[in-house]
Amino acid sequence: MGDQPIISVANLTVTYAGAERPAIDGIDLEVNAGEYVGIMGLNGAGKTTLGLCLNGVVPHALPAEVSGALLVAGIDPRTRSIHDNARVVGIVFDNPEFQLSQMTVVEEVAFGLENLGVEPAEMPARIAEALALVGLEGVDERSPFALSGGQQQRLALASVLVMRPTVLFLDEPTSNLDPIGKADILAIADRLHSDEGMTVIVADHEVESLAEHADRIVVLDAGHVVMNGLPAQVLARVDELGALGLRVPQVTEFAHALRPDAQELPVTVPGALVWLEAR
């Protein structure tokens, strides 16, 4: 991981027009280059708003009052266009159909490149590269709407990756997928982080995957950062997370039931085996 934060947020507050309270309320957060950060929180905690601030959709396309300091790759996304921000932060949402609009898979992936003004001669290689990264080779001429839900989500991801962003923000990318589809998307995110060195932020309820792959977990509640630390530190706070309506990995819940007074709890299956042997 890099020594300098690629994302730096200080006292960031975001209030949408007509809202009674801020969606994000004075949060501080830093993310290092090449880091994998998991974000946990109930719906309305501020996860999506944070991602939309990072790529400038808020406030450029979604009007909101935004205050505080925000830098992504050294530049405030509020000062550059959405197109320019798309080269830095790519976002994939929970429902891929919201991001699909073209007649064929290859046209879908090309759409972002066209908006960026990429030379036509450069497009085929970049499209093929993006489709290969998500395992969608050989479906170029199929309709995006003829794909399975998991394939659609991988296509939405390819459409973001083709723009070669520095930061990938996945906003509950598995919430509408079956177990196989969930595993595929989270495996791709892990591979992009471990093999490509990409900075990955995953807002998701799949805590087992976050426990295994994330370098750090941030918990949001009502627009505030309430926890921020290593997965083993955050996910072991079973009672506190439960009070927020959030679950922990099953192995952690099991260990907590066995030893509710334990100072350390396992958060992965291998860790659980070591923990049990020590007892």
Report on this model:
- It is built from twelve helices and nine strands.
- By secondary structure, it is α/β, with parallel strands linked by helices.
- It has a six-stranded mixed beta sheet with strand order 5-6-7-3-8-9, with helices on both faces.
- Helix 4 crosses helix 5, helix 5 crosses helix 6 and helix 6 packs parallel to helix 7.
- The chain is globular and about 60 Å long.
- The two termini are 35 Å apart.
- The model has no long low-confidence stretch (mean pLDDT 93).
How far apart, in Å, are the first and last alpha carbons?
35 Å
Overall pLDDT level: 93
Radius of gyration, CA atoms, in whole angstroms: 19 Å
Secondary-structure element order, N to C: EEEHHEHEHHHEHEHEEHHHH
- Structural class, judged by helices and strands? alpha/beta
Number of strands: 9
**Widest beta sheet: strand line-up:** 5-6-7-3-8-9
How would a crystallographer describe the biggest sheet? 6 strands, mixed
As a percent range, the share of strand residues is: 15-25%
Overall helicity: 25-40%
Number of helices: 12
Which stretches are poorly predicted, pLDDT < 50 over at least 5 residues?
A: none
Shape: globular
